[in-house]
Amino acid sequence: MTENNNNDDNDNSTETVVVTVEEEKKFITNEPDSEPEPKPQRKMRLKSIKVRHTMLPLALVTFLLSIPFLFQAIWLLYVQQYDCEGLLKTLPKLQLGIVIGLIVVFLVSNGVVYSRARFLAPGLIIVTILLVLMFIVGLTLRGSFNTDNRQIPGSPRWLRMKVHGDYNWNNIKSCLFYTRTCRDLVSRSYNLKPYDYATGTLSPIESGCCSPPSICEMEYVNVTYWRKSNKEMTDINIPYDGDCDTWQNDETMLCYDCHACKEGFVTTLEGKWYKLGTFLIVMSLLLMISHLLLFVAKMWEQHFGA
């Protein structure tokens, strides 16, 4: 009996040693107790990590694309104001409305980026509506709506209609005279040559209001004095320009009543609003695409990170 008990004790101690050695081997080799992660889940987890790494660059790009909206608002409000533009009373109101819209887009865009985890879909809808409105305003300023857009403020046909109106033009030409546009041209006329008037050296207002049209073939004396030619127009292929008769050498008259002066002023205004329309179209599209990519990336992250 004693021998049997001893044998049992030896067997138990041997089993205990074997179990201990097995556990130590598992601990040393770091063998997992659970089964290895399935490949589909591992791929989804890796995709989630990759998408998470793209979120910050997308958010940064979206923020950078919103900054030009703020700068454009400052430029419109404080920096760029063409002389005599305020006489067309609708334009200052339109400009102020665009400034407010640009600031709202900047604030809402960055608010959506900051709170995208809580207001993902509503934020995208709000910012998209604002950007679509800005896009439509940009198309309007570029004159893309050609069907009777004379009633749309800021459009090319609206500008032309307002400037060529007699009441508005009487006020505009007085404003142009008091802004000393032609007098400033006189102060730097020693650098100008007669051919400068035909090569586009002057601004549209300077060439249209301060000098006669080149078709009149007047003799250049100085920047505001041109001697009319006595020869008759015999070439029937050369069109007659009424501005040749309207031009006066009096500094208070010059060509302020000329059609060319009106066209020069219209060209100046169209250039400003056309550039603004192009800016609104391009930047609205870029910011809209950036927000859409940010939305897709966030949805992808939530799907694979769940």
Features:
mainly alpha; 2 domains; disordered N terminus; 306 residues
Residue runs with pLDDT of under 50 for 5 or more positions:
1-5, 14-21, 24-37
Number of strands: 2
Largest sheet: 2 strands, antiparallel
Radius of gyration: 38 Å
Q: Structural class of the helix and strand makeup?
A: mainly alpha
Q: Spell the H/E element sequence.
A: HHHHHHHHEEHH
Protein name: Tetraspanin
InterPro entries: TET_plant, Tetraspanin/Peripherin
Organism: Buddleja alternifolia
Family: Belongs to the tetraspanin (TM4SF) family.
Question: Would you kindly provide a written description of the structure presented here, covering whatever features stand out?
Answer:
The protein is mostly helical and 306 residues long. The chain has 2 domains: 39-161 and 272-305, no CATH class; 166-262, no CATH class. The chain has 10 helices and 2 strands; from the N terminus they run ααααααααββαα. The chain has helices at residues 2-29, 39-79, 90-114, 120-141, 156-164, 166-178, 181-187, 204-209, 243-246, 259-305, and strands at 219-222, 225-227. Strands 1-2 form a two-stranded antiparallel ribbon. Strand 1 and strand 2 form a beta hairpin. Helix 5 (156-164) packs antiparallel against helix 10 (259-305).
